[in-house]
Design a protein that fits this description.
Layout: H1 2-17, H2 26-30, E1 49-54, E2 61-66, E3 71-75, E4 80-85
Length: 86
């Protein structure tokens, strides 16, 4: 059991050292610009968005996960919160 754990640990360490294929380069990220700002999506007392995903079916629908432990579904076209998951 210990031998297998050692092998798996080594594989995980090696996997973490390689840059994933298709990852945006640092140079490309330097050219990113803010296209919109939306306040009041998450709690002001515990601010910060930790995760973000865009719906593959409707790019207007955005899900954010915040430092406030809430998920917010937001419509960027109407600039309205659709749902808050607490």
């Amino acid at each position: 059991l210990q031998d297998k754990a050692s092998v798996l640990t080594q594989l995980r360490k090696q996997r973490g050292k390689r840059v994933p294929e298709g990852l945006t380069s640092i140079d490309d990220m330097r050219n990113f610009r803010c296209s919109a700002t939306h306040t009041a999506l998450h709690s002001a007392s515990n601010p910060g968005i930790l995760a973000l995903d865009i719906s593959p079916k409707n790019s207007s629908i955005i899900l954010t996960g915040g430092n406030d432990r809430q998920a917010v579904v937001f419509n960027k076209d109407s600039e309205q919160v659709i749902a808050t998951l607490k």
